Each structure stands twice: as C-alpha cells, then as structure tokens.
Amino acid sequence: MLNWDTIDTVLLDMDGTLLDLHYDTYFWLEHLPARYAETHGISAAQARAQLHKRIIEEQGSLNWYCVDFWSAELGVDIGALKREISHKVAFRPYVKDFLSALREAGLRSVIVTNCHRTSLQMKLEQTGLDRLVDGIVCSHDFKVPKEDVRFWDSLQHEQPFDRTRTLLVDDSLAVLRSAAHYGIRHLLTIYQPDSRQPARAIDEFPGIDHFDQIHPGVRR
User: Fold this and answer.
1) Quick check: is 37 in a domain?
2) What's the structural domain count of the chain?
3) Is 11 helix (H, G, I), strand (E, B) or coil?
4) Cβ neighbours of residue 13 under 8 Å, at least 6 residues apart?
5) Are residues 123 and 152 in the same domain?
6) Strand 186-190 to 166-169 pairing
7) Per the domain annotation, does 218 fall within a domain?
8) Cα–Cα distance between 67 and 119 in angstroms, integer?
9) How far apart are CA 148 and CA 157, in angstroms?
10) What single DSSP character describes residue 175?
C-alpha cells in the first residue's frame, strides 16, 4: 500500500485515527445531553434534539471543535464535563507499536488535530501521546480547521514538510480532500474510527482497518 522510501513525514489526526472516536461519540450523544438536560430542566430526549440541531449548524467550522464556544453557547462547562468521562479515552489498536516503528525508522511524526487545547491537554494526560510523536499542531492556533486549505499553509510555516514526501492519516474525508487539494501526496483514511460503530465503506481514498497494516517497511 505504501512505499516508505518515498515518505519522510507522517501527519496523524488524533480523534478517530490514533484514539478511539467512541469517547467523543459518547460525550456528544450521551454524556452532554444528560448533563444539559439536568442543567436546563428538560428531558434527555429534548436535550439531544436541541443539541443535535445546534451542533450541526456549526459543522465544518472551527466552532464545531471549540470547547470555549460550546461552553458559552450551551451554558455548561464543556471542559469539566469532558473530564468526567476521561477514563473512556483510549488508543485505537496497534497505535503505540506504529508510532514506535516510525521513530525507529527515522520518520518524523506530527499530530495535526482540530481538537481544542482544553480537550487536547486532557487526552495527552490520559495517553502520553505527546511523548510518542515529534510534534503536535492544533488547528485552533491557526484559527482555521483542517478542512480549510489555509490550515496546510500555516502548518507548512510551523512544521515545514515536503508535500510530495508526506503521508496524512485522517478519518475525516473533508480533511483528506483539503489535504489533497493542497498537494499532500500520500493519503489514508480509517475505516472504523469508532470501535462501537460499523466500519465504513469508503472508496474515495485508500484506507486501513488498523495500523499493523502499514508498519514502515511493510508492503501490502
């Protein structure tokens, strides 16, 4: 699938790629609606419907990922609520082995995430991911999400990379499209970002089930 001789830099999404998206799915669909219902004196079903409508309106924007925005918008402390279920943060299979293999192969690994820094800090505390990669870049620092091609220009200034010798692994098709438009040569998606949800059928980009399929040096 990959010729590692043509790759110098590996850019990695975090949620749904390195970490199981189940944490985020559970937070937005179960935990937040329950707490929101308690705060506003409505049923969980009403809370779920109200939240879904409002959140969808921000899809694709930086607000979609912003803890501060949603805390102000919804009148609850999103950061504190996320910490209540921090024990659910978990690696996807074979991630640690893959990151170790990248380091052993002398390949640079950089996490590029839309995760807000409040959530990012909590997830790093839970996983130690920052010790397993060469850098972490948060789109909120650039004020544009990865779905916006301007993100990659900003990334290029902060973490210079040769787009023809770079691999991006991301579960978001919108992000992969943005990266493709920018000219990043090697693109992979994740078929099952959330371990509790069925694998997705995707043919727009090549993909993997788990990282044991693409260890450096392995040809598939």
Assistant:
1) yes
2) 2
3) strand
4) 111, 112, 113, 146, 168, 169, 170, 171, 172, 175
5) yes
6) parallel
7) no
8) 8
9) 16
10) H
| Domain assignment of residue 166, yes or no | yes
pTM score of the predicted model: 0.94
Say yes or no: 11 and 81 in one domain.
Answer: no
Rg (CA), the chain: 18
Q: Is the dihedral of CA 62, 63, 64, 70 positive or negative?
A: positive
Q: For residue 81, what are its two tokens? A: 């609520």
d(CA 78, CA 71): 5
Instruction: State the maximum Cα–Cα separation within the chain, in Å, rounded to a whole number.
Output: 58
Give me the half-sphere count of Cα atoms (radius 13 Å) on the Cβ side of residue 100: 5
Residue 217 · residue 4 · CB < 8 Å: yes
User: Of 97, 177, 187, which Cα lies nearest the Cα of 145?
Assistant: 177
User: What's residue 161's pLDDT?
Assistant: 97
- Tens-digit pLDDT profile for the chain (220 aa)? 789 999 999 999 999 999 999 999 999 999 999 999 998 899 989 999 999 988 889 988 889 899 999 999 998 999 999 999 999 999 999 999 999 999 999 999 999 999 999 999 999 999 999 999 999 999 999 999 999 999 999 999 999 999 999 999 999 999 999 999 999 999 999 999 999 999 999 999 999 999 999 988 654 4
The whole domain housing 192 covers 4-20+90-213
SS3 137: strand
Neighbours of 84 (CB within 10 A): 11
Both tokens of residue 127? 């996983």
